[in-house]
Amino acid sequence: MGVRYDPNRCHLIFTSGLASAFLYMHLAATTLGLASQWVSAITTPFSSCMIKSLLGVPAEMEPYDMMAVGYPALHPSPKFMRDPEKMIHYDDSGRRISGAMMR
Hints:
Order of helices and strands: HHEHEHEE
Largest sheet: 2 strands, antiparallel
Oligomer: single chain
Shape: flat
Strand content: 5-15%
Helix content: 40-55%
């Protein structure tokens, strides 16, 4: 009931969903071997107007975010990954020594 009658709450849920979709688009691009880059500040009135004009976006629609996607010019070096056994803990947050947490 609260979502149905509270436009602010509905808008927050909507934009949160858009943010999640945008994140998954970045992850999907990466799994396809593509590079992606978030383009900032597109919701300012001037940039929004320019982007809508450039892309032919109808007046009743508003851009939320923008992403550049393409093949990477450079491939990043492999990342150092810790041993999973040192990162995964079951039923607590780490090893304990005589009741105190080990740092």
